[in-house]
Amino acid sequence: MSLLNSSHEPKLVTADGTLIPDGWRLLADDETVGVDEPNVLGFDRALAELDGLNGKYGVRVNPADDVRKLLPFIDKIALIEVAFPGYRDGRGYSTARILREEGFTGPIRAVGDVLRDQLLYMIRVGFDEFLVKDADPQGAIAHAKSLFDYAYQSAADDLKPVWQLRQEATGA
Amino acid sequence: MYVYDQFDHAVVAARNAEFKDQVARRLAGELSEDQFKPLRLMNGLYLQLHAYMLRIAVPYGVLSSAQMRTFAHIARTYDRDFGHFTTRQNIQFNWIKLADTPQILEDLAKVEMHAIQTSGNCIRNTTTDQFAGAAKDEIDDPRPWAELIRQWSTFHPEFTFLPRKFKIAITGATRDRAAIRVHDIGLQLTANGFDVYVGGGMGRTPHLGHLIKSGVPGEKLLSYLEAALRVYNRYGRRDNIYKARIKILVSALGPQEYARQVEEEWASLDQAKIDAPYAEIARIKSFFPEPDYTAKAFDAAALDRAKAADPGFARWVRNNTLAHRRDDHVSVTISLKPTGLPPGDASSEQMDVMADLADDYGYAELRVSHEQNVILPHVAKADLYDLYQRLDKTGLSSANVGKITDMIACPGLDYCSLANARSIPLAQDISKRFEDAGYTDKIGDLQIKISGCINACGHHHVGHIGILGVDKQGEEFYQILLGGRADEQAALGAITGKGMPAEAVPAAIERVVNLYLELRTDESERFIDTVGRLGREAFAGALHEPA
């Protein structure tokens, strides 16, 4: 949305504002899965093959994919990439939140049309890595986290909802 | 009324600071209009045909006299001296300068108001019964629940990029004055919790909401809504904005299957983490006590004498007041539908007067109705004549509430970039046609609703008489619908007869109305009941001039 400049190379930044190298690679469907290599599998391929694979893999989840189908194989998943083909498509927010509700503790990465004005919402629903094309990815994270000190509702992050703060303030 | 605490203030202040920075970047040319658009739309700022329009949330239509005065100040200082009350119980200002918006939002924040989520594909302002807390037929007060939903839905991180906008309405009375069956979610508050209707809506493909769950306990309402919204967020269509509202999903899945999926999602949620505990609900409820009713002696004989001496007052009492749960009070509707003026508009002077009247006679409280009128929910009968006389001095004494000239109309082609046809001038022409008070009262309750395009912002699908503006080879043309209603017997109207140009519409309506007067069994049979009894086809012929 704002300060978007697609000429910037995508950089990987974490929710705590650290730039990290991206070792993972999305495999084309006809590529062989490497043993102990940081390979990201497409969603359908993951469903079809994870059962027979050893090791840990990344999985790419597109907006229409039902992420709950991955749950039987969750032990073999080291990373989930949630794709945002356009920032207006908000299905990925539910995807991330469901993963956290179901107990997935590995990194959830937002890829695609990931813009600085969305970062706060993404952090709140459980994303912890962002592939952004921002001029200043660390500044974008810092800005997003500075926007609100309070949230009205509980989500996947550790912000207490305002109603809980109120209860604590009154000692109820 | 609900009063902000430090947390509520902090949330609004943070959003205003963010938007101020975004506006500054836009004005400095750092952001293009394309980049700015999604940001301004998160703050209720639209770019219309001629200027920016700012839509301000009036939470569930409830406002204080101080808030109304702030609207007057905004109209006077930043707009062309008037504001427009909307069908979603909000207010919008149609002639706003971008550079002024940060200051306007700052002025609003001082009286605990904002423009958050008045646009965009998110959960919009929850609407409710304009007589909440006053009406005789109320089972439970919907306002605390609407406030609970307001807080839960504000910047909800999962539901900020829904397939389309999302509108929730609540009623707590037996008569549905909130039109819950034509909302994405309609909530009927009962003695046993909430009945939940889903998938209602107007627009291009109107649907009535389906009852998918009865008796959701209040303490579980938020988690149930969260489940309902999640199913919609995940499976609502995103390929076509005209098929993206929840009504299309519910209709494609079938209400039972949608309900089953919500149930499954609800069971999977950590409800205890989502649902505010009873202590928080009780805290919110404590802001909605009964007013501190003044024990003014009410002299029924004096009121009768005033009515006999002033027939205008008598008519106003008959049409614009509603029975109150206290015998010595009534609820007063201030009609914003004077003859020949745009429905829902009020000048800064009128807003100031309404604020003063609320202070003097109405416990400092006002409401906005989805019919685009302003309500004083609690007025002592002893004060009625004084109130009426002061309204009359400011052009606010139109005595037409619920009558044929109490129309809903969208802004239409005069303002809106989506419209195909004008709405306001047609409403003005109709109100002139039915100017005669005796004639209007003889017709009785009749709701006309006008939309300037198929997006149906003027609710034409649920007008007793609905009017839809269309574009026919470059000409503005109007289709007439009969038989719609938005109350507890909600029904969708259907196009009846052939379309016609604007100048033919008032006469066509008059012919239909006169036929109704001939056909009704007696005065107690309302227009909508006669249409129901005889069928709309019985009126089709009257729409067109005899050959």
TrEMBL record, chain A:
The highest taxon in the source lineage is Bacteria
Q: What is the protein name for this chain?
A: DUF934 domain-containing protein
Origin species, per record, is Asticcacaulis aquaticus
Q: What is the lineage of its organism?
A: Bacteria, Pseudomonadati, Pseudomonadota, Alphaproteobacteria, Caulobacterales
Automatic annotation (TrEMBL), chain B:
Kindly give the InterPro entries that the UniProt entry links to this protein: NIR_SIR_4Fe-4S, NiRdtase/SiRdtase_haem-b_fer, Nit/Sulf_reduc_fer-like_dom_sf, NO2/SO3_Rdtase_4Fe4S_dom, NO2/SO3_Rdtase_4Fe4S_sf
| UniProt domain Nitrite/Sulfite reductase ferredoxin-like: residue ranges | 52-110, 341-393
Which UniProt key words apply to this protein? 4Fe-4S, Heme, Iron, Iron-sulfur, Metal-binding, Oxidoreductase
Q: What's the superkingdom here?
A: Bacteria
Domain Nitrite/sulphite reductase 4Fe-4S residues, every copy: 119-267, 405-544
> Could you identify this protein by its name?
Nitrite/sulfite reductase
Look up and give the organism this protein is from: Asticcacaulis aquaticus
Question: What taxonomic lineage is listed for the species of origin?
Answer: Bacteria, Pseudomonadati, Pseudomonadota, Alphaproteobacteria, Caulobacterales
